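Appendix B, example 12.
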Amino acid sequence: MLLGYARVSTKEQNLDPQLDALREYGCEKIFTDTVSGAKAIRPGLDEMLSSAQSKDVIVIWKLDRLGRSLKHLVELVAELNQRDIGLRSLQDNIDTTNSEKQLVLNIFASLAEFEREIIRERTNVGLTNARARGRLGGRKPGLNEEAKKKARIAESYYSQGMPVNEIAKSLSISKATLYKYLRFRGVEISPYRKHSFS
């Protein structure tokens, strides 16, 4: 059975050109979505994938109508191949039901690897540039408002000479967190007090 799938991103866009092409091609059932390609939830696509059986062929207007990303597209194609379901894209001249099926699948896998390498390379370049400007990766250091309040109290207690065990207990925090709060407040931690009460 030929199953058609059509998608537009917004209600202002028109599904008719895709639907006409799919009907003309001979699709017996057509599933549709009106949702951005980046969205993970697509009821029409999910329904089609659930109803598709072995030897069925899914027909789409273009590849960008089907996958959210190259990675998602490759995963879908691999899933369809595993379930013995074909895929044809009318505008991209892609057909996984013919003799060139393995070539098509290999190309998809190579493109996915290419995309991963590009992302990895961009990430590494970004981190290198950030370090060169004196910035470190990861979350920016800081405390939320509740933690800042506790840090102020901890600084006050510490300056009054209260033992760190008691400060931690009174604020319901660990000693490691207490030292973090004190460092955040710019308090110089005495090695003697640190060892004496920790």
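Strands lie at 2-8, 29-34, 57-60, 86-89, 94-95. The chain is about 55% helix and 10% strand.
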